[in-house]
Design a protein that fits this description.
The complex is a heterodimer. In chain A, α8 crosses α11 and α10 crosses α11. The radius of gyration of chain A is 25 Å and the shape is globular. A three-stranded antiparallel beta sheet of chain A has the order 2-1-5, with no helix packed on it. Chain A is mainly α. Chain A is built from eleven helices and seven strands. Chain B folds into three domains: 143 residues; 112 residues, Cytochrome Bc1 Complex, Chain D, domain 2, CATH 1.10.760; 129 residues, Cytochrome Bc1 Complex, Chain D, domain 2. In chain B, the strands form three sheets. Chain B has a two-stranded antiparallel ribbon. In chain B, a hairpin with a 2-residue loop joins β1 and β2. The N and C termini of chain B lie far apart (75 Å). The chains are: A mainly alpha, B mainly alpha. At the A-B interface, α1, α2, α8, α9 and α11 of A face α7, α14, β5, β6 and α16 of B.
Chain lengths: 304, 462
């Protein structure tokens, strides 16, 4: 009985002191969304100070009159293989390469896409509009067939990109880069690249580059070579383009910052080595290759 | 009038009482300490090796080492509501560590919570658990600490507790009340269950995190025999250390094999250790023998459910997966999940085996309190690194989301697919964010170092 009295007395004392110790510091106010923010610049004068672009969160799509179309576009870009199987030959989605729904600088973002096209592309030597650019991806990276330019799917994807641009005027652009830089003078060491691949890529992309699907059979990590991978006409089949992507965006799930917790562990040399290793593995041919670089100014890592 | 008359007497009685309490407080620790009569051959390599293994099972390194600090040199803060206390230097350094400890000094600190200078240790040190360890096991640890642990000169830090709370002698009373002498009493007759019980109850000190604490910060039960509050789950350091008992919020959905896999590799096909448990796997359980892992796992699986808690998950049909696949976003939480979480944790919430943990059916997700889900969402973290898997993956922090949206998406995850759990509100997120500002980072809070060649890392600073 004595012991239980002491227990209760101690408990009461402790309770009082804890209450005293913790009261007096009331909860702070809830924190609001803190979106990534980038400068806006004029296309003809990059130094003009004209304000900022705030990366929108998908919940704000609900405010748009065509919200349903924008959401559809977002889903198509995320789950292209599942939703458009007739147009996608590879086990790829648009957003296999466009990191976090095209919202990340250096991760092939769509942030400026709506305003960037039409433009003259060096590869085709002609003016390419956004529809043609998207269809280029379907035929190369996705090793598939183009969409009808007027199809609801094409319009929905463009609606998403337009929304993501947040009505930035045509004369302006968000001051971000779509891809990072790697030193293109570096010479690739494929044997070293193979070692890096098995240490840091294969856990997800497979020991035979076959990729990995989820429990429903939908693609999570795309195949990096073989019949189900992107074809030789894709940018990712080119060593230095692939290296620039890998350096800033791969692997995913290895950082505590960034929407995918991605990138920034490989040096330029690491990235070039591993890019050369997988990019030059067997993959589908691209029939339209004969039309590329008509003026003859082929980049040194072109595959044909 | 009357008070005035009695005041001197009250003061005198008060002071006398305090003096008496202080004096008794000096005496109490001496009643706890023991003289073992054991002579430890600290140079016996077999003993050292055994001690090293026992120190692993007791996970000394986790609390006695800071991030990027020297092993066992102490300095890790433990946050209490009244201020931080710091773990101490337990390297064999003579000036700042335990270099001048005899075996009995060492044994008394570990098992009875009494320092060489006869002062009581804070119960942050799990001596109520360690006290069932046999003297010979502690002797092996002594040999290891005295010979193989590198002596590091690093003075101990004073606690940040306010006066009175930083007095040591009242702790002697705490010990007398809450940590009375205790022996190991085997509950079952099989070798494995007994070994498992010993590891869980003793060196493993699982109850330090997984047993709820009472008003005096004492664990409500130190063994299963005492009550089934033992390992019934608790909130500590902003984590929900889930129930390890037989209810569905505990371990009823786990198999023995999954537990072994989890302790050994930090993952199963559907889940992964994160937060404080990732530290436990990385520093302790991954090194344990197959026999010990099996013993712990069968013992945990043998624990009955907490009183009144259901063993089976209440039936619920999954409507979440199809809605996400169809783009039917019928809540703000669904839109947020689709934007931020679905790429890894997938539409069906199953994640990717050994890479991204499942959220659907994951008992860490629908456990009683949402603290763990909240903390990992706000601050990110990584899986333990073991030789069994090629990479230790991280979850990135989503601290840029609003507190209201964090609450939405956490509620969505805890109540989608077949998950069913209590709802949190924005104030829970506010409090967690506030708490995390002060919380020190540990190894599994930060990204793994994956650089192939540290020398060539110059270019990857972004």
């Amino acid at each position: 009985m004595n012991k239980s009295f002491i227990k209760h007395a101690t408990a009461a004392l402790a309770l009082t002191l804890i209450t005293l110790g913790t009261s007096g510091c009331s909860d702070p106010d809830p924190v609001e969304h803190n979106p990534a923010q980038y400068d806006l610049i004029l296309t003809e004068d990059a130094n003009a100070d004209i304000g900022h672009y705030k990366l929108p969160q998908d919940t704000s799509i609900l405010k748009e009159p065509n919200a349903e179309q924008i959401f559809y576009g977002k889903r198509l870009l995320n789950e292209t293989k599942r939703l458009l199987p007739d147009h996608v030959g590879a086990e790829m989605n648009c957003n296999s390469c466009h990191i976090s729904q095209g919202k990340v600088p250096l991760g092939d973002p769509y942030i400026n896409s709506y305003n960037t096209y039409p433009r003259v592309m060096p590869r085709s030597g002609t003016e390419v509009d956004l529809e043609a650019r998207i269809n280029g991806c379907f035929q190369r990276s996705m090793n598939g067939t183009p969409l009808d330019r007027e199809s609801p799917e094409m319009l929905a994807m463009i609606a998403y990109m337009k929304w993501l641009g947040q009505n930035t005027p045509k004369t302006q652009k968000v001051a971000i880069n779509n891809a990072g830089k790697v030193d293109t003078s570096l010479v690739a060491d494929t044997a070293r690249g193979e070692k890096i691949y098995y240490a840091q890529c294969a856990a997800c992309h497979g020991d035979n580059g076959e990729g990995l699907k989820d429990s429903r059979g939908d693609i999570v990590f795309p195949p990096l070579w073989g019949d189900k991978s992107f074809n030789i006409g894709a940018g990712m089949a080119r060593t230095y383009k692939a290296a620039a992507f890998i350096k800033y965006n791969m692997p995913m799930g290895i950082q505590t910052k960034g929407l995918w917790g991605h990138g920034n562990v490989l040096s330029d040399q690491d990235a070039v080595d591993v890019a050369e290793f997988f990019a030059h593995k067997p993959r589908p041919d691209f029939l339209g290759k004969v039309h590329d670089w008509p003026s003859g100014k082929k980049p040194k890592d072109a595959r044909y | 009038m009357r008070i005035k008359k009695w005041l001197p007497t009250i003061i005198i009685a008060g002071v006398a009482g305090l003096v008496l309490a202080f004096a008794l407080g000096q005496l109490l620790p001496t009643l706890r300490t023991t003289e073992s009569g054991i002579v430890v051959d600290i140079n016996d390599p077999k003993l050292i090796n055994r001690g090293k293994y026992i120190a692993r099972t007791a996970d000394c390194v986790a609390c006695h080492t800071t991030l990027n600090g020297e092993a066992y040199a102490g300095g890790l803060p433990m946050l209490t509501p009244l201020g931080a206390i710091y773990s101490t230097n337990i390297t064999p350094d003579k000036r700042t560590g335990i270099g001048d400890y005899t075996f009995d000094d060492f044994n008394n600190a570990i098992k009875h919570g009494v320092r060489k200078d006869n002062n009581a240790l804070y119960p942050a040190m799990p001596y109520p658990s360690y006290q069932i360890m046999p003297d010979k096991d502690v002797a092996a640890m002594y040999a290891y600490f005295m010979t193989e642990v590198k002596a590091v000169y690093q003075p101990n830090k004073d606690s940040e507790l306010p006066p009175i709370f930083n007095w040591r002698w009242p702790l002697a009373y705490w010990q007398a009340i809450f940590a009375p002498k205790r022996e190991f009493i085997a509950e079952a007759s099989t070798v494995a269950l007994t070994r498992g019980q010993y590891l869980v109850e003793g060196p493993g000190h699982c109850g330090s995190c997984h047993t709820e604490r009472g008003i005096g910060f004492q664990e409500l039960a130190l063994s299963n025999a005492e009550s089934n509050a033992f390992l019934g789950g608790a909130v500590i350091d902003g984590w929900r250390a889930k129930s390890l008992r037989g209810e569905y919020e505990g371990l009823s959905t786990w198999s023995t094999e999954e537990l072994i896999d989890f302790f050994k590799t930090g993952r199963t096909d559907t889940t992964s250790a994160f937060g404080a448990m990732a530290e436990v796997v990385e520093h302790s359980t991954q090194y344990m023998t197959e026999e010990d892992l099996y013993a712990m796992s069968v013992y945990l699986k043998a624990l009955s459910p907490t009183d009144g808690k259901p063993v089976y998950t209440p039936k619920k049909t999954d409507t979440t997966t199809q809605k996400l696949l169809d783009g039917v976003y019928d809540s703000r939480g669904a839109i947020l999940y689709a934007e931020y979480c679905q790429i890894c944790h997938r539409a069906d919430g199953q994640g990717v085996p050994r890479i991204f943990p499942a959220l659907a059916g994951n008992s860490a997700v629908f456990s009683k309190e949402a603290d763990s889900v909240l903390q990992i969402t706000l601050s990110g973290g990584r899986m333990p690194k073991t030789p069994h898997d090629r990479m230790a993956f991280t979850m990135p922090e989503f601290s840029h989301l609003s507190d209201a949206d964090i609450a939405e998406v956490v509620n969505y995850i805890r109540n989608s697919w077949t998950n069913q759990a209590s709802k949190i509100d924005v104030n829970d997120v506010v409090r967690m964010r506030h708490f995390l500002r002060k919380k020190p980072k540990t190894g599994t809070d930060i990204a793994p170092n994956l650089s192939i060649n540290a020398a060539s890392k110059g270019a990857s600073h972004e």
